[in-house]
Design a protein that fits this description.
327 residues, alpha+beta, Arc Repressor Mutant, subunit A, seven-stranded antiparallel β-sheet, five-stranded antiparallel β-sheet, 13 helices, 12 strands
């Protein structure tokens, strides 16, 4: 399917054997009992991992009844690419049609029936990410509200938005493997997807939710400006004060902001972008003088530069150069 090519390049297995299919899906998603009904077995599982999330594409071919164990500190979000599934969680039964998504968080029991040839995109969402995101929004109740809903069926508009987010998520992770500078955006998107799902939870908190959504938009714009400024000044002297001014924060506020959204201090983040730029330049032109390249990007102590380079990439700059020369 267009937009998900990177997912479909990562097949975990393809099997026409019932026993193998059951064992492999249990290992990847959750322990479960499985009843095979009409149709031939044609199980295909694809998996796409990021640091916090796992996205699967799964089909069984045959119609199946699935009786999973309770999910252990995670929710599953099913999006139906083709065919229907019926989800009965905590005695609440709902049908997920093609093009629909459901957030499934059973607390007592769950049963699923997949139609023949049904194919589902399944996101495994850890509750730790929900809680961290809700706390960052200063709204911990959003996390508990979603986790207490056994099956949240998304609205028509939210279904379209969710599929678009999955496409962007896959594209960004595929790009990150080639450009590590995108890592902060991937972490931001992981948190954003958790936030999106929590904001779909219907509750009496509609107006506060709008406030948190607005705050999230402001933070994203700040990250845009910060990233743009950093990339434009990779070869220029930049101070903590400079970065703070770009996003209209104090230095202390910037430090808190970066730890919340980037997982590290602002100058450490900038150093990582500069290391990525050095590596990309070295790979593009291995004959470049390494000392000049390092100093151009603000690394004036070559021994220390080699150490932080190895910490980030698992190899010395000389090894990167050698690999680039050898093709």
């Amino acid at each position: 399917m267009s937009g998900l090519e990177a997912l479909y390049q990562r097949r975990i297995f393809h099997s026409s054997e019932r026993m193998d299919s059951h064992a492999l899906v249990s290992t990847e998603l959750a322990d479960h009992h499985l009843k095979w009904n009409a149709g031939p077995v044609d199980t295909q599982l694809y998996k796409f991992d990021t640091p916090r999330l796992s996205l699967y594409s799964l089909r069984y071919g045959a119609e199946v009844d699935i009786f999973p164990d309770l999910y252990d500190r995670f929710s599953l979000i099913h999006y139906s690419l083709s065919g229907d599934i019926e989800v009965e969680a905590d005695q609440v039964r709902q049908t997920v049609r093609q093009g629909q998504a459901i957030v499934s968080t059973p607390s007592r029991n769950i049963k699923l029936r997949w139609a023949q040839n049904s194919e589902q995109l399944i996101l495994r969402l850890p509750h730790s990410l929900l809680e961290e995101t809700a706390n960052a929004m200063r709204a911990p109740a959003l996390s508990s509200a979603l986790r207490q809903n056994p099956g949240l069926l998304l609205s028509a508009a939210a279904n379209r938005q969710w599929l678009a987010q999955l496409h962007a998520f896959v594209a960004l992770e595929a790009g990150r493997s080639q450009n590590k500078a995108l890592q902060p955006w991937l972490a931001h998107m992981e948190q954003g997807m958790a936030m999106f799902l929590m904001l779909q939870q219907q509750s009496t908190q509609r107006h506060p939710s709008e406030e948190w959504s607005t705050r999230f938009t402001h933070d994203r714009r700040r990250l845009d400006r910060l990233y743009g400024y950093a990339m434009d000044n990779l070869c220029n002297p930049v101070t903590l004060s400079d970065l703070a001014s770009v996003v209209a924060l104090s230095e202390r506020q910037l430090n808190t902001f970066c730890h919340a959204h980037l997982g590290q201090a602002p100058m450490s983040w900038l150093r990582g972008l500069r290391l990525d730029a050095v590596r990309a330049a070295l790979q593009a032109n291995p004959e470049t003088e390494l000392a000049d390249l390092a100093m151009l990007h603000g690394f004036f102590h070559l021994g220390r530069f080699a150490s932080v380079y190895r910490d980030r990439f698992g190899e010395l700059p000389s090894q990167t150069r050698r690999t680039a020369r050898n093709g």
